[in-house]
């Protein structure tokens, strides 16, 4: 491929080398190219994916001063130091600096001294800063951590709302918004709050983790849960508790370690005691521990002195081991984003690693209580916030319900379909699918095609329950009124009960064949790929729900 800007503009390849890099990582050149040509870009890639280069490089090569908005002062200071070390003039503006220092930096900025100026969002309220921005040449405004503008996001910063005004002030500047966490809904919100058109180019990439084998197990009985955890640890770490390979060097990063995430502090303590009793070198980690104890656990983990850390979600920042071989969740976290971030700490070295999510019927009421209680001693959260968080959690539970490749379903959730594998061959669903491949794929295909034809008939009219009634051949006023009772689909799957059919349809949602639309009253739609599956043009790679075992998740609303 041609390098961005090759031949007809700034020398990006030269700038890349000046910044100390030999070559682009996958996707970086494309992102810069789109930004240069279309002047707007929303870039979604995981943390560590190399997003900074997509503004540092144009910033250092284009004439004028690029403005970078970032809420993380430590990170700004780091990047400024690295740029200056490479001879790129850069600075940052944050209220942690003494007043005279800010004035001096603003003065130099007004004289066009800097190629890049990093700005904390509270600076947007300062007239002096805004005035300088209007007077100097600004080729690019980059917004790092752009999801901070979303009130639904986990990290809302009210100051970010002013970015829209800055962009309106500088209509000729290119705009790059970067984030690691945006789902399609949040992405739309980012664009609208920044005042960018809905057809702004978006690039989503880097979410695929093909070396992770994702498993979900529904296990209520305590004994069998413990057996499953013990078995998983031994399999993933490749050793029995207490075993130390001879000549093992603590620095040897290939030795392997595991993280167990627990829903409460109490459970971290209980589970780590249990594992120690079994002979593992395990410690608990949560925000209720004294600082020195937390540091000690973190340090022992870093030095390879622990087989396992049992932690709440407080354990995360600064996990520097690439050889985490397993991440086990004793209960589902609050969202697919949180889950994928936590399980993504396994296998950073690119070698095989395992994620096990344990679910049980009690998870639903527990999460509901956690959500309603809100964050600590604040007043209880607003009903709309509770509702939003609950729906976010239900998305994770629907993913856990499974039926199609777990890896691909997560990529679909993030909108990173380009990297889907068409089945990862390692998750529990893919393995079960291939184990059952000889059973009767024709029967599965037939059932799925019938289910999708019901969706096609109620497409954009009603919700999932109407599709269930249609398939069961149940009396339903909506089906009478619309004449659907007279179609061959009516009663096409009458051998199956309602809850089973609902689970089947939810699995079709997770597989990407069925989706929802509509604001106050969601109605189903058959997606393009779903239509192809219905017609038999694409195989129905789906695990049917088990027959006689009603699941806790049947309690979930459609
Ligand atoms: P993000 O902002 O997406 O979280 P960063 O921009 O901080 O990620 O990049 C993560 C790391 O990858 C940094 O240490 C950066 O120096 C490095 N990096 C980025 N692009 C390249 C490249 N083309 N070649 C080598 N290293 C790179």
UniProtKB/TrEMBL annotation:
Q: Which residues form the Helicase ATP-binding domain?
A: 32-200
Molecular function (GO) terms listed? helicase activity
Name the reaction it catalyses: Couples ATP hydrolysis with the unwinding of duplex DNA by translocating in the 3'-5' direction
Does the entry feature the keyword Ribosomal protein, yes or no?
A: no
Domain named Helicase C-terminal: which ranges? Answer: 249-387
Keywords attached to this Swiss-Prot or TrEMBL record, sorted alphabetically, are: ATP-binding, DNA-binding, Helicase, Hydrolase, Isomerase, Metal-binding, Nucleotide-binding
Q: Which domain of life is it from?
A: Bacteria
Q: What is its EC number?
A: 5.6.2.4
- Please list the cofactors this protein needs: Mg(2+); Zn(2+)
Q: Which family does it belong to?
A: Belongs to the helicase family. RecQ subfamily.
The protein in question is named: ATP-dependent DNA helicase RecQ
What is the species listed in this Swiss-Prot or TrEMBL entry? Answer: Nannocystis bainbridge
Q: Which residues of the full protein are shown?
A: 22 to 579 of 674
């Amino acid at each position: 491929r041609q390098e961005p800007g090759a031949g007809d503009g700034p020398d990006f390849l030269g700038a890349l080398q000046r910044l100390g890099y030999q070559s682009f990582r996958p996707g970086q050149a494309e992102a810069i190219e789109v930004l240069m040509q279309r002047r707007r870009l929303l870039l979604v890639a995981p943390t560590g994916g190399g997003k900074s280069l997509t503004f540092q490089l144009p910033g250092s090569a284009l004439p004028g001063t690029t403005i970078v908005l970032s809420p993380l002062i430590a990170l700004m200071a780091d990047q400024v130091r690295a740029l200056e070390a490479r001879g790129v003039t850069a600075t940052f503006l944050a209220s942690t600096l003494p007043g005279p220092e800010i004035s001096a930096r603003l003065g130099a900025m007004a004289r066009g001294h800097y190629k890049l100026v990093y700005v904390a969002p509270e600076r947007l309220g300062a007239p002096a800063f805004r005035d300088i921005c209007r007077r100097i040449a600004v080729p690019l405004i980059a917004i790092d951590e752009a999801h901070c503008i979303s009130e639904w996001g986990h990290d809302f910063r009210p100051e970010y709302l002013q970015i829209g005004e800055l962009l309106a002030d500088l209509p000729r500047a290119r705009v790059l918004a970067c984030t690691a966490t945006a789902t399609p809904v949040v992405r739309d919100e980012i664009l609208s709050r920044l005042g960018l058109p809905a057809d702004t180019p978006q690039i989503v990439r880097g979410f695929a983790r093909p070396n992770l084998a994702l498993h979900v197990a529904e296990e209520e009985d305590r004994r069998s849960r413990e057996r499953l955890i013990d078995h998983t640890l031994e399999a993933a770490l490749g050793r029995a508790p207490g075993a130390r390979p001879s000549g093992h060097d603590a620095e040897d990063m290939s030795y392997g370690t595991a993280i167990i995430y627990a829903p409460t502090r109490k459970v971290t303590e209980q589970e780590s005691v249990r594992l120690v009793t079994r002979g593992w070198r395990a410690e608990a980690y949560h925000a209720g521990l004294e600082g020195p104890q937390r540091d000690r656990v973190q340090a022992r983990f870093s030095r390879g002195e622990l087989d396992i850390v049992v932690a709440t979600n407080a354990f995360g920042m600064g996990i520097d081991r690439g050889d985490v071989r397993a991440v086990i969740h004793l209960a589902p976290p609050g969202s697919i984003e949180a889950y994928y971030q936590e399980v993504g700490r396994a296998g950073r070295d690119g070698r095989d690693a395992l994620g096990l999510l344990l679910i049980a019927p009690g998870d639903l009421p527990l999460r509901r209580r956690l959500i309603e209680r809100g964050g600590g001693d604040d007043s209880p959260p607003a009903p709309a916030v509770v509702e939003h968080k609950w729906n976010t959690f239900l998305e994770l539970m629907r993913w856990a319900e499974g039926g199609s490749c777990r890896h691909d379903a997560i990529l679909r959730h993030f909108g990173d379909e380009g990297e889907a594998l068409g089945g990862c061959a390692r998750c529990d669903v893919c393995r079960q699918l291939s184990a059952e491949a000889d059973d009767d794929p024709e029967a599965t295909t037939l059932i799925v095609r019938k289910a999708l034809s019901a969706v096609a008939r109620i497409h954009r009219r009603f919700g999932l329950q109407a599709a269930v009634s249609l398939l069961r051949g149940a009396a339903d006023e909506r089906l009478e009124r619309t004449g659907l009772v007279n179609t061959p689909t009516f009663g096409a799957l009458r051998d199956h009960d309602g809850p089973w059919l609902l689970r089947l349809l939810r699995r079709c949602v997770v597989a990407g064949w069925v989706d929802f639309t509509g604001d106050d009253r969601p109605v189903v739609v058959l997606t393009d790929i779903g239509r192809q599956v219905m017609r038999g043009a694409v195989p129905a790679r789906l695990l049917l729900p088990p027959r006689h075992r009603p699941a806790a998740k049947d309690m979930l609303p459609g």
